[in-house]
């Protein structure tokens, strides 16, 4: 593990920042929260990081027990990176940080990179546990080439990448508009009026979903 400067403080936050506080580290973790990923895919999804810096970040996270790698079946030289149980504990804090950061996005930021897969994390970050519907249903999101689903059942919410077998509603959007809605740069209503977002399904389920995602 590369020698890292610590903060000289007996404090949990200082300890956490020693592990994840370097530039790009949380974005590497963001990608692994979406799912296990190979090195080249990480590099492609993090334009600007550079292979040497990505290798260093992965080495440090692996040495800290946050990330692990496993062989790729059928590829003797391939490795896939994934979060350990310790790394998975970062899901809640990272999603909350992402939700908090949405308020600072501007039109100028929209010129930067965006990925449909980030929408999978966005819906998790936006979910309001106090507004879980009292019905069992599923909401399917189609964002660019990605499809992911919110499951509501027995007062709990689950998420998975892939289509729903029986969606109460289906939402179509591109990734930029999806982020704009989450950042409240445009209302869902205005996005629908302009045709940038299309929703099919039960109007009552639409209302429940928007409340769940704090967009009502």
UniProtKB/TrEMBL annotation:
Keywords on record: DNA-binding, Transcription, Transcription regulation
UniProt key word Cytoplasm: no
Record-annotated HTH hxlR-type domain positions: 11-109
Keyword Secreted set for record: no
Any Pfam family hit: SCP2
Name assigned to this protein: Winged helix-turn-helix transcriptional regulator
